[in-house]
Amino acid sequence: MANQFPLGDKELCIGILGMTEGNAHPFSWSAMYNGYDKDVMYEWTHELYPSIPDYLGKQPPETFGIPSAHITHVCFTGYEDRAMAENCARASRIPNVCTDPLEMLGHVDAVICATDIGAEHVERCRPFIEAGLPMFIDKPLCDNEEDLKTIVKWHDEGAHFISSSSMRYEKSIEPYQKCHYELGEIRYILSPMAKKWETYGMHAVEAIFDLLGPGFTAVQNGGTYEKNWVHLYHKNGCYVDIPMEYGMTSRGVVVLGNRGSAQLSDGDSYYAFKKQMDNFVHFLRTGEEPTPFSNTVEMAKIIIAGIRSREEGGRMVELSEIHER
To answer: How far apart are CA 233 and CA 215, in angstroms?
Structure first.
C-alpha cells in the first residue's frame, strides 16, 4: 500500500469497472464526471435502463462534471464485454476502453467498481487493492462472511476504499439523518425496495441506517429468494421491515415515532448518485471517509445475516454470529 494517499488537488484519472445484469452504473456515473452524448446514451440505455436517460435528461449541462476528475478508462467483464464498454465510452466520453481490467494499472489514480454483485467484489477489486489504488466499491460491499473478512483485512492493512448506496443521499432522506427530533423516538420504519436482497437490499438498509445509527442486533428473513421480507432489530427497540420483490416500488421510507411520523420519498436519482460520486472524489483528495468504516461493516453484516436467515428457514440471525476478523 505504498502509493501516496490522499491524492490532494491533482488531476484525477479514474477507471470504472462494470457491468452486471440490471445495472448500468458505468454509463450514468461516467456521464456525471465527463458529460455525455445524449443520442448515444439514449440508444444504449433507453430500453433496458430507461431511468438513466430520463434523470440525466432533466439536468442542465452545468450540473455535469467534477472539478479536475475524469473517468478515463472503462472495462466490462462478466455480464457484458468490450463491445458494450465501447458503447459506454462513446456515450460518456471515456477515452480509453480496456479488454482486461489490469490494463488500467499504471494509467489511473483510482478505480470505481460499479458492479452490484457482492460475491464478485473481492475478485474484481483485489488487483487494484494490492496495487495500492484507492477504490469506490458499489453496494453491497460483499454478501458473505469470508469476503467480509478479506475486505476488513485489506482495510486493517491500510487499503483505501469506500462503499455506499446512493439511497444515503436521497434528497428526502438526507435531512432526517441529521435531525428528526420532531418525530420523537423512532419506533418503526418501513423501507420497501425493488429486486433482490443480495443486490438491492443495501439500498433499503443504507436509506435508514443513519436514522437509528449503529446498533443493529439481529436479522430475520421470512421470505424467499424472489420475494424477501426482512425484519431488522436495533438495540434501541426500533423495528425495521424491508419487503422486497421485482416490480415493487423502490421509492419511499415510512418512519413512525412516538411524537410524529414522516413519509420520505422523492424521484431525484441524479442528486443522490452525483453526491455519491462527489463524496468519492472528496475522499480521494482528503482521505476523509464519508461514513465510518465500522458502519459499513455493520451494514454488510445485515446483508449477510438476511441471506443466512432465509437459507436457514427464516431463523433469527444475530449479527454477533457474523465475524469480520
So the answer is: 9
This prediction's pTM: 0.96
pLDDT digits (tens, 9 = 90+) for 10-26: 999 999 999 998 899 99
Same domain? 196 vs 307: yes
The pLDDT tens digits of the residues spanning 200-252 come to: 999 999 999 999 999 999 999 999 999 999 999 999 999 999 999 988 877 78
CA distance 256 to 19: 37
Q: How many domains does the chain have?
A: 2
The span from the CA of 126 to the CA of 132, in Å, is 10
Chain position carrying cell 436467515: 309
Residues 101 and 39 in one domain: yes
Structure letter (DSSP) for residue 79: S
Q: What is the pLDDT at residue 119?
A: 97
Q: C-alpha distances in angstroms, 221 versus 155, 232, 264, 278?
A: 29, 9, 24, 34
At 262-311, the pLDDT tens digits run 999 988 999 999 999 999 999 999 999 999 999 999 999 999 999 999 99
C-alpha cell at 132: 495500492
Partner residues linked to 194 by β-bridges:
245
Q: Are residues 35 and 134 in the same domain?
A: yes
User: Do the beta carbons of residue 114 and residue 30 sit within 8 Å?
Assistant: no
Claim to verify: residue 132 and residue 187 sit in the same structural domain = no
3-state secondary structure of 143: coil
68: left (phi over 0), alpha (psi -120 to 50) or beta: left
Per-residue pLDDT of 140-175, as tens digits, reads 999 999 999 999 999 999 999 999 999 999 999 999
278 falls within a domain: no
Whether residue 130 is found in the same domain as residue 263 = no
* All cell numbers assigned to 115: 458492479
Please, what is the end-to-end C-alpha distance for the chain in angstroms? 20
Query: CA 230, CA 222: separation in Å to the nearest integer?
Result: 6
Element (H, E) at 148: helix 145-156
Q: Tell me the residue range of the domain where 81 lies.
A: 12-138
User: Is 282 among the domain residues?
Assistant: no
